[in-house]
Amino acid sequence: MIVSSSRCLAGRGGGEGAAAGTTPTQGAAYLAARCDEALACAQAFARVRAIHAAPPAAPLAVPATSPPAGSRAWVVLLTTARYAVGVKALYNSIAEVESDYPLVVMVTEGVPPHVRDELQAQGCSLHAVGVQPPPAGAPSYASPQFIECWTKLRAWELGYEQVALVDADMVMVRNMDELLAAEADRHSIRAVHECFCVVPRGETRCAHLENARDGPPPHSGSYFNAGLIVLRPCRRVYEHMQAALLTFDLATLSFAEQDFLNEYWAGAWEPLPWVYNATKGLYASHRATVWDFRQVKIVHFTMAKPWELRHPCHSGFERLNELWWAAFGEPATISRILLKLHRHEMQLRSGAELSGVEK
Ligand SMILES: [Mn+2]
Ligand SMILES: [Zn+2]
C-alpha cells in the first residue's frame, strides 16, 4: 500500500519551492552555516534533500534518551475547547476500527481543565505541551486558526519511536494500523498530496489529477496536506527545524506550518495513497476518478467543520458530514453510513449528476 518514495526523494532537492514565492535557497543557507548543535542532522538532511552534493556520510548520533522500541501512537494537537468535539469523534472512530495504538492528545494551556478531564475520562492520553507562538514576521494567514498550528511541530519532541500526527477534524473509518506498524524512515516523513482544485494556489497542479490518469504526479504537484504526517520523533530534528524556521521568509508561508513543513521536507517526503487523508476537497473535485467509499480510511473535514452547524459552507457536504456525526455520537454505525454513502455515489454515477464534477 505504501507508495515508493524514490521519485520524490530523487526529485526536487532545494530547487523548486512548493510554496509560491519562497526562496529555495533559504534552507540551504541555514545548512551551510553548520551550527554545531545540529551538524549531524544538517548533514543527514542535506544528503536526503540533495541541497548540497553528497557530503561524507555522518550517521545521526543516537539520542541519549531513545524512546522504547515499539512505542507508537496516533497524536493530535488540541489548543482550544472548540475542537474538543473533533478529538472526541476522532477518539471514538479509532476505538471503533479497533486500532492497536493509543490516541495521544497534545494539549496546550488554552484547553480548560474540565475539557481535559472529559477527554481523559473518555480514554485519551493527554500530553501537555507549551504553545509554540507564530514566528516573528509571520504573515496574515489564510485562516486565523493557523496561528496555533505551529505547536504541531512539538510532535517531533514526543518520547515515542514513531507517531502519526493527525488533525482534530479527522475521522478514521477503517483500521489503518499499517501506518504505525511499518517502520518509517528517520530522515523522511509520509503524507498525502494536497488537492488544489477547490482552492488553487498559483500554478501548482493538483497531484490527484495526475494520479487519476498517468500515474506519478509531476514534481510541481509535490505539496502535501499536513493533516496526516507519519514521523519518527527526534529532539534534534525538532531543534534543527526550529533553527531552520528562523531562516525562512515567513511572509510567504500563508498556510503556516503546512507551508514550512513542505519547504523543510521538500524532496524528503514519501507520498501516501489518498485514502490516508481523504479531504473534503478531494471529495468535491475527484469523486468520479479517485474517491471511493469502499477504500477510504480516514476522512479529513477541511474547511467548514461538521460540528459548526451555522457555517454557511456545508452545501454539497451534508452526506459526508453524516460520517463525522456517526463517529461523534454513534460510532458503531460508521460502517453502515459508509455503505449508505457508497450506494448513493453509485446511484449518482449511474445518473448524470456527477458529470462536470471532475475538473
Ligand atoms: Mn484539518
Ligand atoms: Zn484536486
TrEMBL record:
Classification via InterPro entries: Glyco_trans_8, GNT1/Glycosyltrans_8, Nucleotide-diphossugar_trans
CDD domains assigned to the protein according to its UniProt record, in alphabetical order: GT8_Glycogenin
GO molecular function annotation: glycosyltransferase activity
Pfam family, one: Glyco_transf_8
PANTHER family referenced in this protein's UniProt entry, alphabetically: GLYCOGENIN SUBFAMILY MEMBER
Designated name of the protein: Hexosyltransferase
Species of origin: Prymnesium parvum (Toxic golden alga)
